[in-house]
Design brief:
Elements: E1 4-7, H1 9-14, E2 26-30, H2 31-40, H3 46-61, E3 71-72, E4 78-82, H4 100-114, E5 119-122, H5 126-134, E6 138-140, E7 156-160, H6 163-172, E8 175-176, E9 188-192, E10 200-206, E11 209-212, E12 219-220, E13 223-224, H7 228-237, E14 244-249, H8 255-269, E15 275-279, H9 296-314, H10 321-330, E16 334-337, E17 350-354, H11 362-369, E18 377-382, H12 398-406, E19 412-417, H13 424-432
Length: about 425
Amino acid sequence: MPKTFVIDTNVLLHNPNALFAYQDNNVVIPLAVIEEIDNQKKRQDEIGRNARITSRFLDELRFQGKLSEGVPLQKGGTLRVELNHKEMTSYPEGLDPQKYDNRILFLTHNLSKELSDPVILVTKDLNLRIKADVLGLSTEDFFQDKIDYQGLFPGYRQHFVSPEELNLFYQNGSLPWHGKPNPFPNEFAVLRVSETGSQSAVCRFKNDTMHPLVHAHSVNWGIRALNKEQQFAFELLLDDTVPVVTLLGSAGTGKTLLSLAAGLEKVIESRRYSRFLIMRPVIPTGNDLGYLPGSKDEKLRPWMQPIYDNLELLFRNCSDGPQVVDEFVGRGLIELDTMTYIRGRSIPGQFILCDEAQNLSPSMIKTLITRVGKDTKIVFTGDPEQIDDPYLDAAGNGLTYLVEKLKGEEISGHITMTKGERSLVAEISAKLL
């Protein structure tokens, strides 16, 4: 039985291709959604771009028939734009019919009363889903880019071997892999003789063979790995054959500090890359950066302050650490920027760090990673449990999406970091609070 899906504005601003994601079912776009899309089209960010793409998609569909009557979609089903469907006088008091969300809710209610097939409101707005549920309407999130976050690939595993195999690993510097399931490229393992045994080793999978870590005990810009997860992270960050690295972890696990240390080591110390480009998504709670006074650098400073804090920690042995950071920025060795103007750029020969990447949508992640040019390495860090965007969650943000999609590729490596090293206070607070 075909279903009717009523699509909310935030779904299309998140992914315009949601128009075509429902196969043989019927898609209904409330006119209130078109009005909201129109209000967002002038924004110079990903939301504005998605608004314009949605408008273009709908405009192209006009040539196949009247949108008010319904037009066929390429993968089956139909799409139509509805005004209000019916009068809204029978709706409960207390819901303002002039609000866009309530108009979408009213339309869904009237369709569900008229149609025999199921009517489902698709929205990323939690409050709208709650109101719909109270009124007996079926709702769901947009699931096409959802990832099983609880089962997300951690980047390493525990593997039990015999004492003889562990000795061979140390003697030969490698050990063939015979276990199941097969490891992913650049996956790591902790080799143990038994569950209670004290003998162990850490290794990395390459070409169906387990190899010792190369950079496990290296010191990078004064930073040394403090646990096995940080050793794994440094192994990926310092390996130029792995151009895409993703690091997930809660506050204090060291994902940003290690990435900054590795970037400085590669750009300033060894000169492997020409520039260290550091980016963070801007998720403002009020007006955007353009409303702030000052130059671009002065506007960025509040958003980049966590990066400056970490850089000043790395330059702590310099008597004039903050001035050294500004000097490297002035010389073009370090560049701090936002995602706002990344589209259209090509970035060759650079070390890129995208911090707080959990606040990016899958399409924004794609926009950034497709800017990567020849001989460029890009690192994504973030904590999917700390998302500021109201329409993203741990299972539907760009960072977890990227980890899941690239886990089987030779070009990528991933580590989920769980052990806090910032301070005892931070670690206990992160666990208990």
